[in-house]
Amino acid sequence: MQRVSGASVTAGGQVLGSIGAGYLILLGIAASDTRDKADKLVQKIRKLRIFADANGKTNLSIEDVRGEVLVVSQFTLYADCAKGNRPSFIGAAPPEFAEEMYEYFLRACEGQFEGVERGSFGADMKVSLCNDGPFTVILEY
Fold this sequence. Notes:
23% helix, alpha/beta, six-stranded mixed beta sheet, two-stranded antiparallel ribbon
């Protein structure tokens, strides 16, 4: 997840989603993921305080700054490069399950954040962003 001042995702030359200040969430899904884990992740993201307050300290949540969220599915987060030179993606969830969980995660986000944008599951996408800070965190459940 990256704190951004802006981000967008396109596929086939079409803008699929675009946000101003907020979070770009690159979402990888494993076969062991559950809806409960997704719900916990959304709550963690909602409560995480990584936006600067008036004193420049990371004290504010996405709610405090009325930020937006762009969620992009990214199975390559499960790339295993330990052996050889070609990544293995055996740790990633099968596509049907991953898409179901991606859609569930998006619905959970829509219930918690003001502006939620998305990519297109399984599409060849181009992601543009301005990482604010830069500030990137890895959240796992």
